[in-house]
C-alpha cells in the first residue's frame, strides 16, 4: 500500500470540487416552495461527505477517455442516491442514528416526515437528472442502460435488498458468504454502479466492463470491512457518526465474525483483488488503484 493510504492525492481535489459544484447546481434552491423540503434535501447532500462515489464515476470514465462534462450527470446521480440512502438508513425504524457527518441526522434536524420526503425527492431527482442532463452526450440506448444500472443498484437486488437483509440479521449471526452478500447489496451495489456508469458513459466494451465490475465488487467489500473496523477502533468525533453502534445493536460485522486480525486479513485480500482487476489497463488505472488503497486505509 501507499505510505499514507488514508489520504487521497491532490489530483482528486479538483474532482471533489467539481462534484460539489454539480450537486449545488442540481439541487433545488432553498428559497423555492416547498422551502422546508428543499432545505432538508440540501442539508442531506451538501453537509460534507467523502464524495467517493462521484470520484469512482470520474475515475472509471476518465480511464476510458470520457470528458468530465459527460460524467457529471452520473456523478451527481450516484451521490444523490447515496445521500437519500443515508437519510433513510438513519431513521428510527432503520439504523436509528442521531449523528451523520458530525451533525444531527436529517430526521433529527427536520423531523421524520420531512426526512422521509427528502429522501424520496432525492431519489427522484437522481433519476431525473441522469435522464435529462444535456451534457451527457450519449445515445439513447446508452442513457437507458445507465438509468437501468442505477435502478438495479437501488432496488431489491441492490441497496434496498441489502438493507432488508441487514435488518433481518440484526441480533443474529451470518457466515462469511452471507455477510459478504449482504454488503455486496447494501454498500457495494451503488459503488459498482458508480464505476459502471462512468464506463458506460465512456463507451466501454464488454471486456472493460467485466474487469471494472470485478474491481468495483472487491472495492465495495474492502470499503465495508474498513467501515466495520472503524466502528470498533474509531471515535465519534473523527468518524462523524456514532462509533460502536454496530456492537451496541448486535449487528453482524466482519470483526465480530472474523476477529480484528481476521477482518484485516480479509481486507488485504479483497484490496489485492481490486488492484489485480485493473492489471489489463496498466498505468492508466492509477486513479482507481489509489481510490482502492484509500478505501482500505481511510481513517473515517
Strand content: under 5%
Judging from the principal axes of the Cα atoms, what is the shape?
Answer: globular
- Unreliable runs, pLDDT <50, ≥5 residues? none
CATH fold-level assignment:
Farnesyl Diphosphate Synthase
Strand order of the largest sheet: 1-2
Summarize the biggest pleated sheet: 2 strands, antiparallel
Task: Write the CATH homologous superfamily.
Answer: Farnesyl Diphosphate Synthase
Q: State the order of secondary-structure elements, H for helix, E for strand.
A: HHHHEEHHHHHHHHHHH
Helix fraction, binned, reads 55-70%
CATH architecture: Orthogonal Bundle
Distance separating the two termini = 18 Å
The average pLDDT score comes to 92
Structural class based on helices, strands and sheet pairing: mainly alpha
Search tags:
300 residues; mainly alpha; Farnesyl Diphosphate Synthase; two-stranded antiparallel sheet; 15 helices; 2 strands; 70% helix; 1% strand
Quick overview of this protein structure:
The protein is an all-alpha fold.
Characterise the protein shown here.
The protein is mainly α and 300 residues long. It has one domain (10-297): Farnesyl Diphosphate Synthase (Orthogonal Bundle), CATH 1.10.600.10. The protein is 70% helix and 1% strand. The protein contains 15 helices and two strands. The protein has helices at residues 13-26, 35-46, 52-63, 68-89, 106-110, 112-132, 140-154, 159-169, 176-186, 188-201, 206-233, 236-239, 245-248, 254-277, 286-297, and strands spanning 99-100, 103-104. A two-stranded antiparallel sheet has the order 1-2. A hairpin with a 2-residue loop joins strand 1 (99-100) and strand 2. Helix 3 (52-63) runs antiparallel to helix 4. The model has no long low-confidence stretch (mean pLDDT 92).
Amino acid at each position: 500500500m501507499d505510505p499514507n493510504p488514508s489520504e487521497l492525492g491532490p489530483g482528486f481535489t479538483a474532482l471533489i470540487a467539481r462534484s460539489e459544484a454539480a450537486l449545488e447546481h442540481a439541487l433545488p434552491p432553498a428559497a423555492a416552495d416547498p422551502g422546508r423540503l428543499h432545505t432538508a434535501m440540501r442539508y442531506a447532500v451538501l453537509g460534507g461527505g467523502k464524495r467517493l462515489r462521484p470520484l469512482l464515476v470520474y475515475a472509471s470514465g476518465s480511464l476510458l477517455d470520457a470528458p468530465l462534462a459527460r460524467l457529471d450527470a452520473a456523478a451527481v446521480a450516484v451521490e444523490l442516491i447515496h445521500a437519500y440512502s443515508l437519510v433513510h438508513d438513519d431513521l428510527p425504524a432503520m439504523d436509528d442514528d442521531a449523528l451523520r457527518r458530525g451533525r444531527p441526522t436529517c430526521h433529527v434536524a427536520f423531523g421524520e416526515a420531512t426526512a422521509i420526503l427528502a429522501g424520496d425527492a432525492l431519489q427522484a431527482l437522481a433519476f431525473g437528472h441522469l435522464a435529462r442532463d444535456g451534457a451527457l452526450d450519449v445515445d439513447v440506448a446508452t442513457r437507458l442502460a445507465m438509468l437501468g444500472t442505477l435502478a438495479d443498484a437501488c432496488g431489491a437486488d441492490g441497496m434496498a435488498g441489502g438493507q432488508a437483509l441487514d435488518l433481518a440479521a440484526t441480533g443474529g449471526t451470518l457466515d462469511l458468504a452471507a455477510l459478504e452478500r449482504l454488503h455486496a447489496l447494501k454498500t457495494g451495489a451503488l459503488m459498482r454502479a458508480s464505476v459502471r456508469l462512468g464506463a458506460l458513459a465512456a463507451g466501454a466494451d464488454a471486456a472493460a466492463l467485466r474487469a471494472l465490475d470485478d474491481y468495483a465488487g472487491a472495492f465495495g467489500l474492502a470499503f465495508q470491512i474498513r467501515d466495520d473496523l472503524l466502528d470498533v477502533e474509531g471515535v465519534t468525533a473523527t468518524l462523524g457518526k456514532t462509533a460502536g453502534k454496530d456492537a451496541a445493536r448486535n449487528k453482524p460485522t466482519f470483526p465480530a465474525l472474523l476477529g480484528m486480525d481476521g477482518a484485516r486479513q480479509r481486507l488485504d485480500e479483497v484490496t489485492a483483488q481490486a488492484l489485480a482487476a485493473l492489471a489489463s489497463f496498466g498505468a492508466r488505472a492509477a486513479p482507481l488503484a489509489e481510490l482502492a488503497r484509500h478505501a482500505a486505509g481511510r481513517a473515517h
